[in-house]
Write a structure and sequence with these properties.
The protein has eight helices and no strands. The protein has helices at residues 11-18, 22-43, 47-64, 74-95, 107-126, 129-140, 145-152, 156-175. Helix 6 crosses helix 8. 69% of the residues lie in helices and 0% in strands.
């Protein structure tokens, strides 16, 4: 792998893309793709969602590159775009509750449940990547311990340790009444 492919596109490429240069836009998209996919794999709950989130983030990059205020902020801007897309996809996954008795919850109960879910999703997103990835695979996707360890290239002991630390950090964060309540924001850098 060349060093050019392991770094974000340079400021000249970003500035030219902001001005609408089609060649620069193509270079920007191809040069950002690997990084955007890496962000998505670390933040999304499934590999499929990560791929979809990465593609959506590249669409946002293509559509809104002109709104990026500082060319050097490309990486942090794209991280935020990917983060929001992964959170949006996770919310959609958990949105449709199944009620056994067929009764729908009241509007108040539905609003409270949605707020609590957003708080949980934000708390999970705030975990360090190594804890978040283990927790998502094990507790959300329901993979076995062995499958989780294998998927992440970890020993079972390392996987269990990260899972324990992630669950404990999540428990502490969710105990706090002010924990992880802000997930919104703008796509602009």
């Amino acid at each position: 792998m060349s060093t050019a492919s392991s770094t974000w596109p340079g400021e000249r490429v970003v500035v030219a893309a902001q001005r609408g240069d089609e060649r620069a836009i193509a270079l920007l998209l191809s040069g950002s793709h690997m990084h955007v996919r890496r962000f998505a794999r670390a933040l999304c709950s499934t590999p499929e969602e990560a791929e979809d989130a990465a593609q959506e983030a590249l669409v946002v990059l293509y559509q809104k590159i002109g709104t990026l205020r500082v060319a050097a902020a490309l990486a942090s801007w794209m991280f935020q775009v990917v983060r929001r897309e992964c959170l949006r996809r996770t919310r959609l996954t958990f949105r449709a509750p199944v009620y056994r008795d067929g009764a729908e919850p009241s509007a108040e109960d539905a609003a409270l449940a949605r707020l609590e879910l957003e708080r949980i999703v934000a708390a999970i997103a705030a975990l360090p990547a190594e804890q978040r990835s283990v927790l998502v695979l094990r507790d959300i996707q329901g993979l076995s311990g062995a499958d989780t360890a294998q998927a992440l290239g970890l020993s079972r002991a390392a996987m269990k340790s990260r899972l324990h630390r992630g669950r404990e950090a999540l428990r502490i964060q969710l105990k706090s009444p002010l924990a992880a309540t802000s997930t919104g924001g703008s796509d602009d850098a």
